[in-house]
Design goal:
Blueprint: H1 6-23, H2 28-47, H3 52-56, H4 62-69, H5 73-80, H6 90-100, E1 121-123, E2 138-141, E3 150-153, E4 155-157, H7 167-180, E5 183-185, H8 193-196, E6 201-206, H9 222-229, E7 234-240, E8 251-253, H10 260-266, E9 274-276, H11 286-299, E10 305-309, H12 314-327, E11 333-337, H13 348-353, H14 358-371, E12 379-383, H15 389-398, E13 402-405, H16 407-412, H17 435-438, H18 443-467, E14 481-484, E15 490-492, H19 493-496, H20 504-507, H21 511-519
Parallel strand pairs: 4-13, 5-6, 6-7, 7-10, 10-11, 11-12, 12-13
Antiparallel strand pairs: 1-14, 2-3, 8-9, 14-15
Helix pairs in contact: 1-2, 6-18, 7-18, 11-12, 12-14, 15-18
Length: about 525
Amino acid sequence: MMRFVIFPVLLVLGALGALAGVFWASGWWALCAVMVVLLALGVWDVAQRRHSVLRNYPVIGHARYALESIRPELQQYFIERDYDGRPFDRDTRSLIYERAKGIQGEKAYGTELDVYQPGYEYLLHSTAPVAPPRQPPRVRIGGADCTKPYDMALLNVSAMSFGSLSANALRALNRGAALGGFAHDTGEGGLTDYHLENGGDLVWEIGSGYFGARTKDGDFDPGMFADKAAHDSVKCVSLKLSQGAKPGVGGVLPAAKVTAEIAKARNVPQGEKCVSPAWHRVFATPRELVRFVARMRELSGGKPAGFKLCVGSRVDVLAICKAMLAEGITPDFIIVDGSEGGTGAAPLEFEDHVGRPLTEGLMMVHNALVGVGLRKQVKIGASGKVASGSDIVKRLIQGADYTNAARAMMMATGCIQSQRCHTNQCPVGVATQDPKRAQALDVADKSLRVQRFQQATVAEAGEIMAAMGAHEPHELRPDQLIRRVGHHDSDSYAELYHWLTPGELTADPAPDWAGDWEQADPDRFGQRTHERR
C-alpha cells in the first residue's frame, strides 16, 4: 500500500498550500493548484486500463515513461545497467512491446550488433525468394497411437504455473491464445479455472508433484487425471522431467503461500508446505518412462502425450530412444527446454551452470531421434528465450518443429523485467499472488497484446523463411544458419555439427556417438560406473 501514499501526501500538500494562500501569500495557491492537478492525474492513472505500472504506481509511475521518452542514453544508464545481460536486451524488449502494441517494428540506421563478434549468428537469404505463406504453418502433433491429433502453431505459450503467475496473467495469456489460435501450456501447478475460463487450447503439464492429479500421499491419481484431461480445452498432455531454470531440482511452496486457490488447483492441503520433488514416483527407468507416457495418452482419451526436459547426459537421451525401440512406444512430442530459460525465481548456480543450453539440447534430441529412425514419429518443441521471428527460424533449422515462449509472452502481458518475481511484489501484476497488484493487469487489453505479439512474430518468421527461399519449415537447411567463430571466420551449422542420417545409430554409429550409444541402457538412467584410477 505504500505505493499509494502519494494520494495523502498530495492532499496534505494541497491543503497546506491553500491555508498558506489564505493566511500568508497568494502565491501559495499555485502549489495548491499543482497538487490538485497531480491528484486528478493519480485518479486517472488508477482508472485507466492500458498501463499496469500506472495503476499500481499512480503519478510516480510516469517517471518510467519519461525515461523511455529520452532513451537510449538515460534509460540505458538508469534502468539497464544492473541487468548484466540476463533479461532480454533493449532491442529485443522493444521488439516485443512494439509488436504487442501493434506498432511496426522498424528501425533507422540498421543494426547495433557487432556482426564480427565471435558467436554472432545470421541467416542466409536466397537470391530467388518466394512468396510468404498465406496462412501460418502448423504442425500436426500425434503419432500412430494418437486418436486426437492437434495442429500446433509455430509459436505458443510456454509452461508457467498458477502460483508463479497471477490469475489475471493466466487469463490474459489464455484469452490471447484463444483469439490467436495457438496453445497455452499450463505449467506444473495444476489445471485451474483461470486456464479454462477463456477457452484457449491447453497443453496440460504434469510434474513430479502431480498437482491437479494427485493422491493425498503424493502419488499420481489416474482417475483424477482422466477426468480433467477429458476437458475439451485440453489438447495435449505433457510430463515434465525437468525445466531449464533449475534442472534436476524440485520446488517448495511455503505453507503461508498455499492459499485456498492454490490448494484447490494443486490438490494439496491448504496452509501446508507444498513440495515438488526432484524425481518422479511413476517411473525409474527409461522403459518405465515411455510406458507411462503411453498410459497418459490412453487416460486422456487418445490425445497427444509427450514429455519436457532440459537435456543433461546424452547417454540418458539415447537410453530413452532405446526404450522407445524396445517397447514400440513413442511419445507424440518432446519439448526441449534450454538452460537459459526461466521466468521467475530459481537457484542462481543452477540458472548459470547446470543443464544444456537450448541449441545443444535441441540438436542432440533431434539427432538422437534421427539416428534411431524415429524422428518422423516424434515432434519436437523448443523452449528458451524465443522472442522473434528469427529465433523461430533458427530453432527450426536446429531441429525443432515448433517453439514455445515464456518470458516474451510475459512481456506481452506487461512484464517490465523488474526481476522481482520471487518477492511477490511484481510492479505490473504479472508474477505475483498479491490480488491488489494483480488487479492492475487488465485482461482484455493484455490478451489482445498477447495475440498481436504471437501473430506478428509468426508472420515475421514466415517472411524470413520466404526470403530464404523456403515455402515450408521442412525446406530449411543447416547450411543456411551461419555462426561467426572468429573475427575472420564463419561456419554454417552444417559444418559446425555432425548431423546423423536416419537409422545411423542402430546400423553403424559414428565414433563420436558410438561410446554413448553403447553405454545407453533402456533399463537404467546414467552411465555405467567406472572405477577411478
